[in-house]
Design goal:
Elements (H helix, E strand, L loop, with lengths): L3 H24 L23 E2 L7 E2 L5 E2 L5 H4 L7 H14 L16 H7 L3 E2 L1
Parallel strand pairs: 3-4
Antiparallel strand pairs: 1-2
Length: 127
């Protein structure tokens, strides 16, 4: 029985180390930094951080900020989900030719925009 006590002590200390390793690995999978590391944005959980406009350096689009399809440039329109530079130019061309869009349904007349693309951008557009 003399050797049992050191064995149990060693077993428990090894388990503690193993549990710590599992906890750290689980909290930060594959060694990736935690989501709040390296950012200055400390928003609430579930909120997205502001997105940087790559077309216009220095301009930040806040979550929930809508893009007006009747006044936005092609570069601003290309930030919409499912809209690339080609479709953005089509939106500007149709707006110039036929006048301002009155409803989301009018966007379906733009070449390259279907129901799926339109539904993806509905939360981000204004008229």
């Amino acid at each position: 029985m003399k050797g049992l006590r050191p064995f149990v002590k060693m077993l428990f200390s090894g388990m503690a180390v193993l549990l710590m390793m599992v906890a750290v690995t689980w909290a930060s999978p594959l060694g990736q930094p935690f989501s709040n590391q390296g950012t200055s944005y400390g928003g609430a959980i579930g909120k997205s951080a502001p997105s940087v406009d790559k077309a216009t350096p220095g301009k930040v689009r806040l979550p929930g900020e809508k893009i007006n399809v009747n006044t936005a440039s092609a570069a601003e329109l290309s930030k919409l989900p499912g809209v690339g530079p080609k479709i953005a130019k089509e939106i500007v061309a149709r707006r110039t030719t036929y006048g301002p869009f009155k409803s989301p349904r009018d966007l379906l007349e733009v070449k390259g925009i279907g129901k799926k693309v339109l539904s993806g951008m509905m939360d981000d557009i204004a008229f």
